[in-house]
Structures are given as C-alpha cells and as structure tokens.
Amino acid sequence: MNAYDFDKTIYDGDSTADFYLFSLKRHKKIITLAPSLLIAFLKFYLLKKGTKTDFKEVMYRFLRFCDIKKDINDFWNINKNKIKRFYIENQKKNDVIISASPEFLLKPISNELGIKYLIASCVDSKTGKYTGINCHGEEKVRRFYEIFDKETQVDEFYSDSYSDTPMAKIAKKAYLVKQDKLSDWNFDK
C-alpha cells in the first residue's frame, strides 16, 4: 500500500486555493468576504494567533455563495489535468490519499481516479466549519490507524512537506516531492 499527500504532491498546486479562486471568478459576491479573510490571514500568519483551523474556517465562509455540487464538478473538469503524471503512471488499486484539504473537495476526483481510500479534513461543505481536527501532521497518522489496523504497512509515502514526517516515519520508504522531482525523505529535517 502506498500513501500520498494530495496538494503539491499528486496535484500540481493547492486544490483548496485553486477552488477558492475558481469560485471567486464564478460568484463575485465572495469578494465581500475579503476584509475578514485578510484579518484572519494577518492574525494567523503574521501575529501567530489562533490555529490554522480557525483561519481556514474564515476562508471557507465563501462556500455559502457556491453551488457546491455543480461548482466542484466543473472545477475538476477543468483541473483534473493537474494530477501529476508520476502518480498516474504509478497508481495502485489500494493507494491512500491523506490530505488536510476538505474531503468534500477531494472525494469527486478521488472517485474519478479510482482511489479507494481517501482520508481528508472533515469540513461542512455549506458552512465551512470543521467537524473534526484538521488532517495534518500527527493527525494524519491517527486518522490512518482509525481506518487501518496497526499491522497495515505503508510501503511508500509521498509528500511535498516535512510537516508530514509522522506519516513518512510509518512507511518503509518515503519521498519528498518537489514539482516533478522525487527525492528520498531526509529525516534529519
């Protein structure tokens, strides 16, 4: 079994940011939320106050302006070509995608690609509120073992970020993905 992060790993970019921009073009009223998003951004990223989940919940307020099912379908029709070739060429039937992105956004493309196991952040697609913990860092390992028993072996793990070291540690082999280049995981970082 191989496990993959999604954004910037098998998807060329950040799917949540791309969906936000896609939605902004389609639903101009989203711009009215810009002041609150800017404040949340400054608070979290510059002042280091609050959590990433707090910031994301403010950002996800844009969802109330969307026709979620149609918008996500249209988004993936345009953006599915951003799934990286290395993944398509190496995909296996029992792959696991494990991501901090919202499950409602990744589920349609996972289904289309035939990905059987998707573990992602549980976010209400109407309100943008989290119904669980952001699937990031150690939470990815906890969520993985919520679905698979402790005997389940991850053969290879792929991610673009060392924040995923907890998942890399449970894999036989781990790779850091930068654009289209794969390198061995450096556990000293």
Folded structure, characterized:
The protein has eight helices and six strands; from the N terminus they run E-H-H-H-H-H-E-H-E-H-E-H-E-E. The chain has 189 residues and is α/β, with parallel strands linked by helices. Helix 2 (34-46) packs antiparallel against helix 3 (52-59). It is globular, with a radius of gyration of 17 Å. The mean pLDDT is 96.
Poorly predicted ranges = none
Number of helical regions: 8
Radius of gyration: 17 Å
Let me know the average pLDDT: 96
User: Which sheet architecture does the biggest sheet show?
Assistant: 6 strands, mixed
Structural class: alpha/beta
Task: Please list the strands of the largest sheet in the order they lie side by side.
Answer: 3-2-1-4-5-6
- Report the count of strand segments: 6
Helix content: 40-55%
Fraction in beta strands: 15-25%
The secondary-structure element order is EHHHHHEHEHEHEE
Q: Please tell me what the overall shape is.
A: globular
End-to-end distance, in Å?
A: 25 Å
